[in-house]
Task: structure prediction
Amino acid sequence: MVLDSLTLFPEGIAHYLLGGLLIGAATAVIYLGTGIAAGASTFLESTLSYVSNRERFQQFRFVQSRDWRLVFTVGIVLGAAAYTALSADPWFVTEVSPTRLFVGGVLVGVGTRVGKGCTSGHGICGVGSLAEASLVNVATFVAVAAGTAQLLFALGVRP
Amino acid sequence: MSRDEGQTDSAGHGGEGRHPLFMPLVLLGGFVFGVGLAVSRMARPEVVLDFLQFEDFGLLFVMGGAALVAGPVFHLATRSGGRAPLTGRVYELRRKTLDSNVLLGGVVFGVGWGISGICPGAAYASVGIGNWPILAGIAGMFVGAYGQGVAREFLD
Result:
């Protein structure tokens, strides 16, 4: 296989880089204004604190942050919707089966909470902070995810 | 509870002492975050799965580009020794303790990401691009987070 830019980046890199810079800028703006290194996965536990009386979810850090985490998440949905409505990119519906999404989602829910963060918390804020734990976490989940995705593909799971 | 998970200082996360612009800024930040996820197409599970199958390495530019902007800002703000204007919080880097949970969580998250192509932030943005089946994935995340919370209550 010839490794040129077309095989590595068949869709180009411009939109990837632009999207990454915007995500980084959003993280930086929140950090500069509030001192909070915002991750997207704590939203799961903090939102559960509205509906579960379990001590685990009623911790101070969840109850105290649940309102702004909800606002942050609503912002993410609105931003993606506004972009899609106003740009040439079409509305999108995945062909990945709901079963795959659900099963993967359960593991993502467990893994981000056990591992103290996700692609934004560890991947952006943690890596940006050059935190050892985040570098280890990201290297681990990228390697495991690549292995998993290729195994499923080899087993003929489509799409 | 370890301190690094905490962020339990009264400034910043509490209802008291928040600046009126706190919520608007968080909303704006989330909005730009969501635009970025849509622009990069990372909100599409297919794009993530193409990356994980080594068919398109573009996602490296999403994570790299984001860390490239956030990293210097985090470090400069921390070095300034200042406090965030809207909360009074001291700027601190996001450094969690490296323990076996970080590794175990990374493995479990990796299997889930590899199966579904979704992670939390991208999944929320996916709702915004009209991808309604992603709700099954988000439901799964809540089930997983709830399950691990209950399990931890018994383990701790």
